[in-house]
Structure formats: structure tokens, C-alpha cells
């Protein structure tokens, strides 16, 4: 008795090959769709934005005259906000992740925290803005400052950093910890010298990607009270400020064509910043990835 | 286990490992330094100047419609008074008033007069204020240049076109003799002050037809309307001004015959009901106690008209004597 019914196989072959190529076609189309959208976006921004892109554009303050307008206040404001957001969210986020992964008992309470953190990662950013307005701006009386904005942003990306860090900590092989304990290291020594360094690339990658998200956010900062026209750079953490996305949003909502071109130039600058940040993330990941 | 221990040994004391860790820390520290130096290095840039100008800071927020005027005023004012900081926010009219009535602002920009609830809140927050008018904004109803049958529209016809209830299906339903073809409606998004304004004065706060294409991006509206000679839409006068070559503004009959939106008809109030005044509300306390706020307000009233009517902004100035009257009012509050 033949194990394979050759007749049936042959009969179905055509359909199977067709199904295979259809699936392949769909996936290629899906990939191409994203690529085409990206290409169109880059082309439009490039063709619109090049005209105003110059050194003056970067070092001038905003202006009602398109040819005099620049993004200096917004650029520096963004850097200031990030200077607050990055350390705060990194320290709190990684601390939480280490506690949850290494110290917390696996009980109902931990699971409860875990679920809440995952949910927070999906909360719309405007909600964090309202939270920041109530707590930082009004309750703690930080006013509409860089500090209030930075802390709000830190809250926004905290869940993402916690989840990414947990993921990174979990990938550290169990053997390593066991071996460390076996050599007489305490838990803290093990975490500090073994687990944390091993997980660091993953943690940093997650953090940088989260920060990239924060750089592009407008809504929460508008609620917290970032401004739209600012002709000075922040002097300290309590200064008023504006950030790049707000400046861009403001320009795109103006009727005159020139302001749209300015916005496109601003987008190029923002894209370059994001590209640099993502490259750092990729660099770190590649450099430290294959250690185990 | 033995293998792991060997790796571990390398981890704990291996020179390569130490170097790697160091370079990571170094990288992190350098990145931080970069951020801070970039942030701190330029603070004294605009501190120059001096002389007898006023100094201080002014808190301005509110309507995004008024924003272009205040941005221009701030820019010019700070050019003359480099020691004054007058940044402008765009929380929207409502958002601005919400902060204003708590005493968090010196000036609140608004594209509508203050509401009764907001007045009550201001009383509760012990904020005395004065209303100043800066300029006019006209709402323009537009059709494509190719459209040859619309000569004007009455408010009732606008209702037929834009209302959900009793909506006209074809242009023939709006007025006899017009083509029996579908109406394409384009309108600003529901979050915009422009939508609110139109909804209030034309539709009497009833919902707009559901098949209207709404967009926050006015360019989409411009493209939509230019794309078809059976399309109609509306947006701010400034937007019409900037796209004059592609669009035709429809004269509106508010009961006294059709009037086309022009600077003249908007200023005189003839272009009713689709023109509106733009305001800023000043806190009396701030005007009295903060010299910078007084000077800023004075500068605003002296220059707002000219700035608002400039090409890059596109609103319509008030008559000259209106500004003069308001300047007197300002001096009165300040006790000068």
C-alpha cells in the first residue's frame, strides 16, 4: 500500500502553491505599504522643508515672519525637558523593574501591580497631562515649568521603561545568578555586578525608545502649560518653556503656506534627533548583545 | 555550572568586562553633559539691552485664533524691551479662561466673550478683569472658482446645506434652478473654535450633517473645496485670504442683502453674522501692579490693528478710535 496518495498530492499541489504565493504576496504588500508611506512622508517633508532649513533656522527664535522664524527656544526646551525626564524615568523605572523581578514575592499583590503597570502603558497621553496639571503644576506649585513638564513626561514613559527593563532582567540566564550565589555573593552584589550589567543593553534600548516617544509628545505638555510662542531659552528648572512638537503643531495650523514649510523643516530636525537616539539604541544593543 | 562560573569570573573581575561597563557609564555621563551644556550654555543670549525699558514677565494664554496677533505683539514688544518675557500659550479660549479665573494668568486671549459661568468663577477667584477687543475675524463660506451657479446664500440656505435635520440632498433642494447634484460639505473639526462659532450663529447649536467631511487641517478643506464645483466649505477669513486664487467667497445675506467678506465689510459689521471680534482679557490687578503688563497692553492696543491686518496674520483691524478708547480705559485701570 502506498503511503502517499500521489494522485491527491498532485491534485492539491496547484492550490497549495497558489496559497503560498498569495500569503507571500500579502506580506510583501504589507511591508511595501509601510515603506511607501514612509517614502512619501520623507519626500514631502524633504521637498517642503529644505527651503527654510539653515543654521539661522536652528538658532533663531520663533517669529511671525517666516524668513526670520527659527526653533531655538523649542529645541533647547525639548533638551531641558528630556534632561529632567531621562534620569527620573530611568531611576524610577529600573528601580521598579529590579524590585518586581528580583525581590518581590510572586503573589497576588505583585501580579496586581504588574497588571496595572501594563495597563498604564496603554493609557492615552492626555490623561498623564491632566495628572501632571493637578499634581505637579497645582498641588506641588511647580507652575508651568520645565520641571513640571519633565516630571509629567517621566510618568508617561515610566510604564514602558519598567516593562522593557523587566523583560531585559528576565533574559539574564539563571545559571549566572546561581553561580554568583555559589561563590558567596549576596543578593545585592549579584544584582549589582551580574544581573544589572547583563541586562543593561536591553534596559538602555528600552529607555531610549521610550524617550524617543516622549520627545514627540504634544498633548500632555500642552495641558501642563507649555507655551507656543517663547522668545527665550529656559534658565533653570522653573522657567517657562516650549518644545519642538508644539512649535510644529502651531506652525501647521497657520493658514500661510510658508509656515507649513517651516513646520516641515522643524520635522526634519526632529527626525534627525530621533534618528540619532535610535542609532544610539541600536549601537548599544549590538555592542553588548552577544555576551552569553 | 562550571562553564557559568568561568563566565562569571570574567564578569566579576575580567578586564574586558570592566572596560565595557566603564564605556557605558562614560557614554551615559557624556550624553548627560551634552544635554546640560546645550541647555545651559545659551541662557544669557537675550539678556542684553537695558536702558530705561521695563522688565518682568507676563503670563499670556488662551485662544489659538488670537495667538498669531499676540505672537506678533510679543515679538515686537520684546524687541523693544529685551528684559521682558512675554511668552504666549495656546490652551484654547476655554482653557485660557480656566487658568485666568484662578489668577494664574495676566492676559487671557479669547475668540468669544467670557461666559457667565466663567464670570462667576472669576468672582470666586477674586479676579477683576477688563475686556479688550483686538481685531475682527471673519468666517468665510467658500466654493470652488469653477462654481458658476452660486451668487450668494442666505442664512436659511446655509442651514439647509449644513444642518443634519432637513438637510438638502442636492443643490436643487437649496434653491430652485440649481443643479440636481449632490452637495459635498467640508467643515473644520468639532474641536476648533471656528466650528463652534459657525454652529452657534448659523446652526443654532444643532448638529451639523453627518456626511460633512470634517478636518482639523484647513488645507484638507481647501483641497476638498477646490476639487469639485459642487463642493462648499467654510473657515477663517485669514485662510480664505491665503487661498484667494483658488477659492471664491460666497456673499452672505444676513437679512440686509448679500455681503461679501472683505476687510471693509467685516470691520463695519456689515458682514453679519459671520464676523466676530477677538479679545484679550486683562487682569486689573496685573495691569495696576506690574509695569510690564501695563506697557505690554498699551503696546498691544497701539499696534494690534496693524499687526493683525498684516499678510502673515490676515485678520481685520478695528476702527482707529476704538483702539484710542480702549487705551483710555487701560490708563483708567492703571490709575494713570
Automatic annotation (TrEMBL), chain A:
Gene Ontology molecular function, alphabetical: phosphate transmembrane transporter activity
Thylakoid recorded as keyword: no
Signal sequence segment: none
One GO process term, biological-process aspect: phosphate ion transmembrane transport
Transmembrane segments: 21-45, 71-100, 120-140, 146-164, 194-215, 259-284
Chain ranges of the ABC transmembrane type-1 domain: 75-280
Cited PROSITE patterns: ABC_TM1
Membrane topology annotation: Multi-pass membrane protein
Localisation per UniProt entry: Cell membrane
Listed PANTHER family: PHOSPHATE TRANSPORT SYSTEM PERMEASE PROTEIN PSTA, PHOSPHATE TRANSPORT SYSTEM PERMEASE PROTEIN PSTA-RELATED
Protein known as: Phosphate transport system permease protein PstA
Amino acid at each position: 500500500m502506498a503511503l502517499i496518495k500521489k494522485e491527491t498530492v498532485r491534485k492539491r499541489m496547484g492550490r497549495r502553491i497558489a496559497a503560498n504565493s498569495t500569503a507571500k504576496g500579502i506580506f510583501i504588500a504589507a511591508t511595501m505599504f509601510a515603506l511607501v508611506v514612509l517614502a512619501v512622508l520623507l519626500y514631502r517633508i524633504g521637498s517642503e522643508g529644505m527651503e527654510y532649513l539653515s543654521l539661522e533656522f536652528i538658532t533663531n527664535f520663533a517669529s511671525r515672519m517666516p524668513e526670520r522664524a527659527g526653533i531655538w527656544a523649542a529645541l533647547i526646551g525639548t533638551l531641558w525637558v528630556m534632561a529632567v525626564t531621562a534620569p527620573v524615568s530611568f531611576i524610577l523605572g529600573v528601580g521598579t523593574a529590579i524590585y518586581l523581578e528580583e525581590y518581590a514575592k510572586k503573589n497576588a499583590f505583585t501580579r496586581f501591580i504588574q497588571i496595572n503597570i501594563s495597563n498604564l502603558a496603554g493609557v492615552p497621553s492626555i490623561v498623564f497631562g491632566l495628572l501632571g496639571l493637578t499634581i505637579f503644576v497645582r498641588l506641588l506649585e511647580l507652575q508651568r515649568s520645565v520641571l513640571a513638564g519633565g516630571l509629567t513626561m517621566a510618568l508617561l514613559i515610566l510604564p514602558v521603561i519598567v516593562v522593557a527593563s523587566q523583560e531585559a532582567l528576565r533574559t539574564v540566564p539563571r545559571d549566572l545568578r546561581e553561580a554568583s550565589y555559589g561563590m558567596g555573593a549576596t543578593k545585592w552584589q549579584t544584582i549589582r555586578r551580574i544581573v544589572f550589567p547583563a541586562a543593561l543593553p536591553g534596559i538602555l534600548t528600552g529607555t531610549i525608545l521610550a524617550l524617543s516617544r516622549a520627545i514627540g509628545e504634544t498633548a500632555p505638555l500642552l495641558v501642563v502649560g507649555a507655551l507656543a510662542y517663547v522668545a527665550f531659552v529656559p534658565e533653570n528648572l522653573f522657567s517657562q518653556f516650549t518644545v519642538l512638537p508644539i512649535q510644529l503643531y502651531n506652525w501647521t495650523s497657520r493658514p500661510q503656506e510658508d509656515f507649513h514649510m517651516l513646520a516641515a523643516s522643524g520635522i526634519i530636525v526632529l527626525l534627525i534627533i530621533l534618528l540619532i537616539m535610535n542609532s544610539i539604541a541600536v549601537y548599544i544593543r549590538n555592542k553588548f548583545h552577544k555576551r552569553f | 555550572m562550571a562553564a557559568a562560573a568561568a563566565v562569571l569570573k570574567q564578569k566579576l573581575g575580567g578586564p574586558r568586562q570592566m572596560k565595557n561597563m566603564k564605556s557605558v557609564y562614560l557614554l551615559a555621563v557624556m550624553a548627560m553633559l551634552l544635554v546640560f551644556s546645550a541647555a545651559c550654555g545659551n541662557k544669557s543670549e537675550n539678556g542684553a539691552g537695558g536702558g530705561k525699558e521695563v522688565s518682568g514677565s507676563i503670563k499670556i494664554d488662551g485662544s489659538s485664533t488670537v495667538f498669531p496677533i499676540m505672537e506678533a505683539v510679543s515679538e515686537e514688544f520684546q524687541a523693544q524691551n529685551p528684559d521682558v518675557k512675554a511668552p504666549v500659550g495656546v490652551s484654547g479660549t476655554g482653557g485660557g479662561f480656566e487658568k485666568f479665573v484662578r489668577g494664574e494668568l495676566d492676559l487671557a486671549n479669547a475668540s468669544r466673550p467670557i461666559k457667565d459661568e466663567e464670570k462667576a468663577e472669576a468672582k470666586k477667584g477674586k479676579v477683576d478683569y477688563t475686556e479688550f477687543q483686538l481685531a475682527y475675524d471673519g468666517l468665510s463660506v467658500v466654493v470652488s472658482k469653477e462654481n458658476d451657479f452660486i451668487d450668494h446664500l442666505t442664512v436659511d440656505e446655509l442651514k439647509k446645506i449644513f444642518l443634519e435635520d432637513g438637510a438638502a440632498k442636492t443643490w436643487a433642494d437649496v434653491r430652485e434652478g440649481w443643479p440636481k447634484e449632490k452637495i459635498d460639505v467640508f467643515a473644520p473639526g468639532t474641536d476648533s473654535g471656528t466650528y463652534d462659532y459657525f454652529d452657534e450663529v448659523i446652526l443654532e447649536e444643532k448638529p451639523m450633517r453627518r456626511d460633512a467631511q470634517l478636518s482639523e487641517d484647513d488645507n484638507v478643506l481647501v483641497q476638498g473645496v477646490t476639487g469639485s464645483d459642487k463642493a462648499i466649505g467654510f473657515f477663517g477669513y485669514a485662510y480664505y485670504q491665503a487661498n484667494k486664487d483658488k477659492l471664491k467667497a460666497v456673499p452672505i445675506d444676513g437679512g440686509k442683502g448679500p455681503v461679501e467678506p472683505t476687510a471693509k465689510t467685516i470691520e463695519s459689521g456689515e458682514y453679519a453674522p459671520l464676523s466676530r471680534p477677538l479679545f484679550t482679557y486683562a487682569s486689573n490687578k496685573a495691569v495696576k501692579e506690574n509695569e510690564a503688563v501695563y506697557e505690554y497692553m498699551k503696546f498691544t492696543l497701539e499696534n494690534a490693528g496693524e499687526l493683525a491686518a498684516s499678510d502673515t496674520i490676515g485678520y481685520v483691524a478695528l476702527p482707529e478710535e476704538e483702539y484710542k478708547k480702549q487705551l483710555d480705559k487701560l490708563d483708567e485701570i492703571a490709575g494713570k
